[in-house]
Amino acid sequence: MPKNSEFIDKLRSSGLRPTKQRLKICEVLFKRDKTFHFTISDLAKNISEQLNQKISLATVYNTVHAFKNKGHLKEISINSSQSYFDTNITHHHHFLDEDTNELIDCDNDVIEKINVKNNLTGKKIKSVEVLIKVASDNQNQK
To answer: Are residues 99 and 72 in the same domain?
Structure first.
């Protein structure tokens, strides 16, 4: 598990000054064994509860985006007004449970190889990541 010095290095390499709040953001994001999916508002609420004091949404937003820009986090856009962030920066697929608004990793073996027949002229495909939206099947709940 990362120590404070690793968090300080991560912050500084992202162009951020290591403050108590930013170190707490690092701890919540990177001191864990499993992938962590979050929205900025959910992360701010989580950190405020852990610190037992309010954290500025702007601090969380700026820190998360600095980490994303440096490649420490991945952004998954759900629609034009909603994004999740992921601590797993490898290429992988996701399920979005529309009942709970939970983003869940999808094993690569669940999806067969994707064959893209056309590409934009002069462009190279970097990756293909699938977002599968799921919801309760209300017909079977009767």
So the answer is: no
My answer on whether 81 and 97 are in the same domain is: no
Assess whether 16 and 80 both reside in one domain.
yes
The whole domain housing 126 covers: 90-141
| 61 phi and psi angles, rounded to 5 deg | -60, -50
Q: In this predicted model, what pLDDT tens digit does every residue of 23-65 receive, in sequence order?
A: 999 999 999 888 899 999 999 999 999 888 899 999 999 999 9
Q: In this structure, what token pair is assigned to residue 65? A: 């985006």
Burial of 122 (0-12, 13-18, 19+ CB in 10 A): exposed
**Which phi-psi region, left, alpha or beta, contains residue 101 (left: φ > 0; alpha: ψ -120 to 50)?**
left
Q: Which tokens hold the place of 35? A: 């992938």
Indicate if 17 and 66 belong to the same structural domain.
yes
With CA atoms as reference, report the closest residue to 43 among 16, 25, 18: 25
Whether this model's pTM surpasses 0.90: no
Number of C-beta neighbours around residue 67 at 10 A: 25
What are the distances in angstroms from CA 136 to CA 99, 100, 121, 133, 140? 7, 10, 40, 11, 9
